[in-house]
């Protein structure tokens, strides 16, 4: 994690240096401030859309995982936009724009599902369910649910 942070700082300094050599110091500062203002406006607008979509989905009784994840990604994009630097602005913009946010959402949900299954299997212990019959290496506490018709191995 420290290496990733160090690479981020190096990329941020290099980007500011490159922009500064093209447009000058005052132009670079103006671009950073303008990026923060435009990004915060965009984050507010997209955040409002995500909140309205979440409320509509929740009121209709459907699962709002897409809308909830969109709201999380918009918040992350807003934070990245407010961090000074061009690399963070570009990453934040990617999380704020709907087409790239949908790609990030699919990646995030797939990763979260894999981690949840792995965590559940670690907590539950080695369990296998075959045609509603539980086969376990050790006694299973009664509060662990049995998933019918699926094979779950830990």
Structure described in brief:
With 154 residues, this protein is mostly helical. Helix content is 75%, strand content 5%.
Number of helices: 4
The description of the largest β-sheet is: 2 strands, antiparallel
- Strand adjacency order, main sheet: 1-2
N- to C-terminal distance:
28 Å
Q: What is the CA-based Rg, rounded?
A: 22 Å
Structural class: mainly alpha
Shape annotation: flat
Share in helix: over 70%
Q: What is the beta-strand fraction?
A: 5-15%
- Are there runs of 5+ residues with pLDDT below 50, and where? none
H/E element sequence: HHHHEE
Write the layout of secondary structure elements.
Layout: H1 2-60, H2 65-82, H3 86-96, H4 98-124, E1 127-130, E2 133-136
Antiparallel strand pairs: 1-2
Helix pairs in contact: 1-2, 1-3, 2-3, 2-4
Explain what you see.
By secondary structure, the protein is mainly alpha-helical. The protein has a domain at about 1-95. It has four helices and two strands; from the N terminus they run ααααββ. The protein has helices spanning about 1-60, 65-80, 85-95, 100-125, and strands at about 125-130, 135. It has a two-stranded antiparallel sheet. Strand 1 and strand 2 form a beta hairpin. Helix 1 (about 1-60) packs parallel to helix 3 (about 85-95). The longest helix is centred in the first third of the chain and has 59 residues, at about 1-60. The protein is flat and about 55 Å long.
């Amino acid at each position: 994690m420290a290496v990733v942070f160090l690479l981020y700082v190096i990329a941020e300094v290099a980007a500011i240096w490159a922009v500064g050599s093209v447009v000058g110091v005052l132009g670079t500062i103006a671009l950073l401030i303008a990026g923060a203002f435009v990004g915060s406006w965009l984050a507010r607008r997209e955040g409002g859309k995500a909140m309205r979509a979440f409320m509509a989905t929740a009121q209709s009784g459907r699962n709002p995982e897409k809308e909830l994840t969109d709201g999380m990604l918009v918040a992350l994009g807003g934070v990245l936009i407010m961090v000074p630097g061009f690399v963070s602005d570009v990453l934040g913009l990617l999380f704020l724009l709907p087409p790239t946010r949908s790609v990030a959402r699919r990646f995030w949900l797939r990763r979260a599902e894999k981690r949840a299954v792995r965590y559940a299997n670690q907590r539950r212990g080695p369990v296998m369910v075959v045609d509603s019959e539980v086969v376990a290496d050790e006694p299973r506490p009664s509060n662990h649910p049995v998933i019918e018709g699926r094979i779950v191995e830990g």
